[in-house]
């Protein structure tokens, strides 16, 4: 588990810790389990493990559910891969405190 049963305040955000990505990683499989469907998350990327920036895809925002699986392939201008570090930022728009759990598998190939 990346985060398990983490509380997130209503109309607030929670940012998880950094993950060091193996340079041969092809994709991430993400499984979320939230206490409310009003929670979305975004993968953040970093070159140095300190300065993180949102990537363009927000997960669980369209057709939101309390649980599900997302697949993130590392693709950039004609090469496949990820930045050396990533983390996840969660946003709760429900107005009340919720709990989040996110697990991931890193496919190296």
Brief synopsis:
The chain is built from no helices and eleven strands. With 109 residues, the protein is mainly beta.
End-to-end distance, in Å? 22 Å
Number of helices: 0
Overall mean pLDDT: 92
Q: What is the succession of H and E elements?
A: EEEEEEEEEEE
Indicate the structural class: mainly beta
- Model regions low in confidence, pLDDT < 50 over at least 5 residues: none
Radius of gyration, taken over Cα atoms and rounded to an integer in Å = 14 Å
Q: Approximately how much beta-strand content do the residues carry? A: over 45%
Mass-distribution shape? globular
Number of strands: 11
Largest sheet entry? 5 strands, antiparallel
Q: What is the helix content?
A: under 10%
General description of the model:
- 0% of the residues lie in helices and 61% in strands.
- The protein has strands at 3-8, 12-15, 19-20, 25-34, 39-46, 53-59, 67-73, 75-76, 79-80, 85-92, 98-108.
- β5 and β6 form a beta hairpin.
- The model has no long low-confidence stretch (mean pLDDT 92).
